[in-house]
Amino acid sequence: MSSHGMRLFLLGLLALVSLGAAHVAPLSAMVKSPVTVEVAAPKMYVEGESLLVSIRLEVKGDKSAQLDSWALSAAAFSVNGHALGSRKGKRNLILEPGQIVETTLDLSAALTSSKKWSQRDFRLTYHGVGKTDPQEVRYFAGPEKGINFMELPLEQLADYQVVMITNRGDFWFELWPEVAPNHVRNFLDLSYTGFYDGTKFHRVIPGFMIQGGKAKSGTRAPRTVNAEFSDRKHMRGILSAARPGHDINGASSEFFVMHSTYPSLDGEYTPYGKLLEGESVIDLIVKTGNRAYSPNSPQGYTPMTPQILLRALVVKKTNPSKRKNK
Prior knowledge:
five-stranded mixed beta sheet
């Protein structure tokens, strides 16, 4: 054997001895990783808000796994192919067989400080373990501070939209101030002031709609809004105002989003916007209704698990047809 071949043989033997003694399988050296990874990232990011991602690692089999500590940091993510931090360092994180590691990271600071990202839609990819599919994320500019939407001129209302972050996914709504200006003002004001944050979708009916925006315990909506009927139809994805059945001018904070077309609501309730993105989230929420009861009973309207509206955020208007990730 040549001296070069002998050196390669000895290096390989040392590697095997080291792995056998520590019973650790470095991920990069394995054809099949012993670690499964699940990464959840939002589809929408609003300027100035958190960008929360979750990572779940689980070690399969009977061997430990060794990985870099940056695999559980912002550096494990890239934006449009550029890492959000340094990936230097030793493999100093050891996971035992059967171990599960779960963590949530806020990438907003790393994102905004990245010299490779400008304020636009982007592609977010996790590189810490194995290979994961990239997540396309829409970017939204936040509104100015100190806006009084209840007094904003009609022509300026058209400059804003609303993004809703829920525990089932995200909604993006366009609004119709030319159709129902006072409902739009009310919805923008309640979203802007945080009224909706932490509320729930409390009434869901498959084939009909999901309803939310009810005031939290100990609070009440700041106002009611008179009906603004129009020729707009209640079709899938339409945003409309809920109200007491006996009072056409009793709309306040509650709203509903149509799961299916429902003509009997047309001309009886006030639609004031529609979904631009998030129809699949309607499907997830509406399925949680308690099927043990008739949909005409109060129990049948209530989701079996909490369907939470985490944040309702006013954003500057953008045209979805002109948006492209780069």
